[in-house]
Structures are given as C-alpha cells and as structure tokens.
Amino acid sequence: MDKTSIIQKTEEYVKEKLKGDHTGHDWQHIKRVRDNALHIAKRENADLLVVELVALLHDIADWKFHGGDDSAGPKLAGEWLELLNAESDVINHVCGIIKEVSFKGAGVKSNIKTKEGMAVQDADRLDAMGAVGIARVFMYGGYKGIEMHDPEIKPKMHESFDDYKSSKSTCINHFYEKLLLLKDLMNTETGREMAEERHRFMEEYLKRFLEDVGGKNKKVH
Ligand code: NI
User: Disulfide: which of 12, 21, 41, 84 matches 46 by Cβ 3.0-4.6 Å?
Assistant: First the structure.
C-alpha cells in the first residue's frame, strides 16, 4: 500500500476508535498533535511518514486506560500497520516511539531517541499545556473522578512509573507534577519556542485560581 493510502486508512481507523472519547484524548487531540508534530518534524528534517503515523496512533490504547500496561498501545499499532502491509522498519520505528512517548512521572527519564519520536513527544506535550492543556486536565479529572483541588494534598514528584500511575492526586496538583515541567522537557528548539507562551499562560491561570480559592478576589458588597 502506498504512503498516502496508509495515512488515509489509519486516519479513518483512529477516528472510529476514538469516537465519543470524553477523556481529552479525542480525535481533535490527535489532529492537533499531528499538525504540531509535522510542523516540528519539517524543521528537524525528520521522516514525515513515521511522524504522522505515530501522531495518529499514539493514543489508541494508552496505558492510562489499559490497567497501566504500556505495551498495549504499540502492540495494537503494530497489528494495524501489519494489516496495511507497511514496511517492517517503519512499523518497528512507529511502535518503538509509541511505547516511550507518554509522560511517566517527574523523575522518570524519557527514552525517546530519534528525531521522529522527539517531534511527536513535543507535540503531544504542547497539547497538555496552555488553554487546551488546562481544559484537558479537568476533563480527564472528571472522567477519572479526581478532585479538582484540595490544599491538604501536596503535589508529589514521582520517581518511578509505578509510583506515578498509582498516585492519587488532584487536578491542580497535576500542574505541578507534570504540566509545569513540560517546558524544560521539550526535545526540540521549535517545541521549546512553542511551549513558552503556553507555560506562561498556565502560570497566570494558576495564580488566579489560587487567588480565587484563597479569597483574595472575593467581591466586596
Ligand atoms: Ni496524546
């Protein structure tokens, strides 16, 4: 099958698979990640087919929804690409990146090694930042039944993936445990530039949130 058909078929497959998602990992998330990943990849001279396939397939079976199993995603992606008769080195590269692309805790080092992986990881992380990132935190929190805010629960810097996945926290803590760390974890120069403003906006948002809950912005009647 030629490259255009592989992309087209994969797009249809992913759209169908993520239909009705209300966890913040819907088709629009995939589209944004694909657009940003391709933008970064072009600047980095990365292989655009691999980048586009990873962006499309990276959330079809995320560990967050598969009992913490981070091999479910690459396995499903591999089976799909084999069905399309994609080249084996493309399949291996795509699956290798999908296994490593997601955030696994503040103290857990990412194993992304290729330009293609770096482009998609940056794009996926950009979508967890800024106005969209803020919306997605609360959407995911609602889905998971995670509290919005509890000043008694302090943020935790997770040192292992097991620790990160089993941790019970709050939506606001998620900013400190992940989202505010992303700017400095960007792999590419383009990603870093794009992350700046989104990071600043989240800081501003948190400042306002904490002022509001702290009562400083209460209206005086
Ligand atoms: Ni994603």
Answer: 41
Residue 33 C-alpha to ligand 1 middle, in angstroms? 7
Q: Which residues have C-beta under 5 Å from ligand 1, the single-atom ion?
A: 59, 124
Query: Which of these, 138, 95, 137, 132, lies nearest to 117 by C-alpha position?
Result: 95
Judge contact between 148 and 171, C-beta under 8 A: yes
* CA separation for the pair 149, 58 (Å, rounded): 29
Residue for token pair 């997601």: 102
Residue that is written with structure tokens 């990365």 in the block? 46
Angle at 50 between CA 14 and CA 85, to 5 degrees: 70
How far apart are the CA of 220 and the centre of ligand 1, in A?
Answer: 43
CA 205 to centroid of ligand 1, rounded, Å: 22
Q: Residue 183: which pLDDT band, with cuts at 50, 70 and 90?
A: very high
pLDDT in tens, 12-60: 999 999 998 889 999 999 999 999 999 999 999 999 999 999 999 999 9
User: Tokens 């091999």 identify what position?
Assistant: 71
Q: How far apart are the first and last CA of the chain?
A: 69
Mean pLDDT of the chain: 91
Distance in Å, CA 69 to ligand 1 centroid: 16
115-126 helix and 189-214 helix, angle to the nearest 10 degrees: 20
Q: How far is the CA of 30 from the centre of ligand 1 (A)?
A: 7
CA of 29 to the centre of ligand 1 (A): 7
Q: How far is the CA of 147 from the centre of ligand 1 (A)?
A: 22
